[in-house]
Amino acid sequence: MARFGIEEEFVLLDEQTLVPTAMSTSTRERLAEEVGAGLTPEYLTCQIESATAPIENRADAEAQLRRTRRLLGTYAADQNAIIGATGTPFISPNRFAVSSSAHYDAVSTQLVEITREHEVNGLHVHVEVTDDEERVRVVNRVRAWLPTLLALTGNAPFAHGRDSGFASWRSILIRRLPSSWSPPHFRDLDDYRAQLARLVGMGAIAEASSLSWTARLSERFPTVEVRVFDAQLTVDDTLLAAVLTRALLVSDALDGLPELGLDAVDASLWTAARYGPEALLVDPVSGDPAPASAIVDDLLLRLRPTLAHLGDEDFVMEGIARIRAEGSGARRQRDAYAENGTAGLRELYRRSTATD
């Protein structure tokens, strides 16, 4: 059974204004002591990233995720703040400090003005694939289905204190980076490495770990890393994205399908970011535009045996039904804001770390 890992990025928000705020050094140190090695600073000082240990089943993932969110919420409250489990903050002053590290210094030098608005929080799912060439084949096989995953999981509806009109504004911000959205199709591992080396050599990215493709080979682990998701509102939302991704990457039910061009995949990522579950996407099977809901149904039919084998079938089916009834995180954030303004968002975010 393929192991997997989950990385979640969060933003620390002032409890009253919902403006991003830096976590104090002492709070970071206390958190690191209690959470362990899985907690690290993110690009901006208002962000923090948590990472699970390698996971073999959903129950283990749930336990790790709930514990970390509970601790983050507790420590944030100590400094009159809350944790925002959202792809972009509701409002932003656009004057953030970059976390101190050689890597982030190189990134900020590269991005210059983009850093002022690069307040993005993602969910990254790693799935173990031990053979290097097979990892490249997995990226080729799943890239056309990643817009479908984004359509289900958009959770970044706000920008500058107003509705952006997008389910995933984070995806649009990411698009400005020099290596973003869909990876191209690769002939083999040598081709992957050659294309990566070209990006680094021309100065488009500082190093391999700066790649922002929606799927890539991990530089640290024998995994394929799927990066298409916004940070998710709830643990259940994160678990749904993670176990669906694992099934997608390990199943052979997607073999033999026609190859979609880069423009088709990127156009689908745009419509998924814009419209969420109501998007029209390029169908990975027919190559024609189709409703995301119909593509999801086809994907679930193909993955059902794998999901059943992994023990995740019922959980995924219930999760998809919940999204169809309640909407993705973006819709739930909009509903909370429409009902009670920033107080509604504050309570929604607070519940995301109150997991007992």
Total number of beta strands: 13
Mean pLDDT: 90
Low-confidence stretches: none
Helix content: 40-55%
**Number of helix segments?**
12
Query: How much beta, percentage-wise?
Result: 15-25%
Largest sheet features: 7 strands, antiparallel
Task: List the defining traits of the structure above.
about 350 residues; alpha+beta; 12 helices; 13 strands
Provide structural commentary.
With 356 residues, this protein is of the alpha+beta class. Helices cover 47% and strands 15% of the residues. The chain contains 12 helices and 13 strands. The chain has helices at residues 25-35, 58-77, 102-111, 132-142, 146-153, 169-174, 189-201, 235-250, 262-275, 292-310, 313-326, 329-353, and strands at 4-14, 39-41, 47-51, 81-84, 122-128, 158-159, 162-163, 180-181, 212-213, 215-217, 223-230, 280-282, 289-291. The strands form 4 sheets. Strands 1, 2, 3, 4, 5, 10 and 11 form a 7-stranded antiparallel β-sheet that branches. A two-stranded antiparallel ribbon has the order 6-7. A two-stranded parallel sheet has the order 8-9. A hairpin with a 6-residue loop joins β12 and β13. α1 runs antiparallel to α2 (58-77), α2 runs antiparallel to α8 (235-250) and α10 packs antiparallel against α11 (313-326). It starts with a strand and ends with a helix.
